[in-house]
Amino acid sequence: MLYEMRTYRLKNGAVPEYLKVVGEIGISIQKKHLGNLVGYFSSEIGAINEIVHIWGFDSLDDRQARRARLAADPEWQAFLPKIRDLIVTGENKIMTPAVFSPLGGKVPE
Question: Could you tell me which residue ranges the NIPSNAP domain spans (predicted)?
Answer without folding.
Answer: 3-102
